[in-house]
Every structure is written in structure tokens, then in C-alpha cells.
Write a structure and sequence with these properties.
257 residues, 12 helices
Length: 257
């Protein structure tokens, strides 16, 4: 982490979990144990049906709310989809874009990710853009080239002053929901490479301002080691974000000097 230049952000991705009543229970459990320090920003990305309630429930403990995806268009005949403007009006501040599960199950491509990034920015949301490689791609030795390509595609035609406020989450596919985790060195190396790509595209001032998270099975036990890497500015948390005590331990790790 490098708080001198950029925000540390711990974001939870609830995926398809937690009803409204379960969200209320989670809020009741986490509020008494939330750290008092304000070193890092905390975000919960929740199912769309929970956004408005979550904004109200977590307001007094300084947890911002995000959505888990959005459509790239601002209206249309797309049954079941939600626009970035709808998410913004519901009270959310963030939206996850290009998560590997969206890419895998819903055929999202690097080009639709770029369109969604522009839609989110236009609506006034902060995109959390996910990038990452499969185990086969890592074993082939193409991780850095693939990540660079994904980052460049996601940020295509985004103005430098907007890039400074975007969040990028490095999520190796082989470490999502598998219990496997990249070593701190592996995570740090790729996050550093992402910052290098941004620096070449937008310059050093922009690059050092961008928050880059690690999101491959970060948990209460490994968070401190991962966050000690200079280019790892937080985490995009899956399973551990569903457990208030574990989520708070990760926040505490991010709050350390």
C-alpha cells in the first residue's frame, strides 16, 4: 500500500448471496466491530435488490455500497438488466465491471467491459475493473501480456482525469473460489505491471493515483502479507466478505501503518 498517493480500498463482492433480511443481520453484526480508524475505504458490492436498503443500513458505519455489474447502454429492451444510472440513483457509488464470472458465464468481452466503464463513469460511478489470467495462461507464461491487453482495452478512450479515480482489481482466475492464492510476490508483481501499463499510457502522476486491488481469495489470514506489497492497494473480497468478523480482520490489516 502507498497511502501517500492513493486510496486503500477493501471491497466485498457478495455475488448472488444475502437477502434483504440477511443484509440487515450482517449490518447488525458488523457495526459494533468495525475499526474506528479511517485509513482505508470500505465498500460492499451487493445484489441489485439490496442496494437501496444497504445504503441506509451501512450509512452510519462508513461503508459505501456498490453494484456487481451494469449494462453498457443507458436504456433499451434488455429484460433483467440494470443501467449505471439506475444504480447511481439507488445510492451506490461503485460498480464491479468485467468480473471473471461475468466474462465466463455471460460472455462479457474486453470490449463490452470498456463500454461498461464508460457507462459507469458517465453515470458518476467508480468502476472496479477486474482483470486476470487462467491457470493455463499463467503456465504458458503470457500473464503480463494478457493483463496489459485487458487493462488497455478496459481504459480505451478514458480521459486521464477519469483514470485517476478508477479502481483495478487483479483477480487470477485460478485463485477465485478455489482456496488457492497467489503468493504476495506474485500478486505484487502483477499489480506493479498494471501500474506500469497505466504509466506508459497516461504518465506517472495518473499511474500513482490509481488504486489497484488484489482479489484472488484474499482472507483474514493472508491479507496483511498481500497488502504489504507496495502496489497492492486493497482487496476485492469474495467469501470472506460474507462473514462480518473475517471481513473486519481484512479491514484491520489494511488499516495498519
Amino acid at each position: 500500500m502507498n497511502r501517500r498517493y492513493r486510496k486503500t480500498i477493501i471491497a466485498g463482492n457478495w455475488k448472488m448471496n444475502n437477502t434483504l433480511s440477511q443484509t440487515k443481520t450482517f449490518a447488525e453484526e458488523i457495526k459494533p466491530i468495525m475499526p474506528k480508524g479511517k485509513w482505508c475505504n470500505v465498500v460492499l458490492c451487493v445484489p441489485a435488490t439490496n442496494i437501496q436498503s444497504a445504503v441506509r443500513l451501512f450509512k452510519d458505519c462508513h461503508i459505501a455500497i456498490g453494484a456487481e455489474t451494469c449494462h453498457e447502454l443507458d436504456h433499451g429492451a434488455y429484460t433483467g438488466e440494470i443501467t449505471a444510472a439506475m444504480i447511481k440513483e439507488a445510492g451506490a457509488k461503485y460498480v464491479i465491471i468485467g468480473h471473471s464470472e461475468r466474462r465466463q458465464y455471460y460472455n462479457e468481452t474486453d470490449f463490452t467491459v470498456n463500454k461498461k466503464v464508460h457507462a459507469a463513469i458517465e453515470a458518476g460511478l467508480i468502476p472496479i475493473i477486474c482483470v486476470g489470467e487462467s491457470l493455463e495462461q499463467r503456465e504458458l507464461g503470457v500473464t503480463m501480456e494478457l493483463i496489459a491487453y485487458q487493462v488497455k482495452c478496459a481504459l480505451a478512450d478514458v480521459a486521464p482525469e477519469k483514470v485517476r479515480h478508477i479502481v483495478i482489481a487483479y483477480e487470477p482466475l485460478w485463485a477465485i473460489g478455489t482456496g488457492k492464492t497467489a503468493t504476495a510476490e506474485q500478486a505484487g508483481e502483477v499489480c506493479q505491471a498494471i501500474r506500469t501499463v497505466i504509466r506508459k499510457q497516461y504518465g506517472a502522476h495518473v499511474a500513482r493515483s490509481v488504486t489497484i486491488q488484489y482479489g484472488g481469495s484474499m482472507n483474514a489470514k493472508n491479507a496483511e502479507e498481500l497488502l504489504a506489497q507496495p502496489d497492492v492497494d486493497g482487496g476485492l473480497i469474495g467469501g470472506a466478505a460474507l462473514k462480518p468478523a473475517d471481513f473486519v480482520k481484512i479491514i484491520e490489516a489494511a488499516n495498519q501503518e
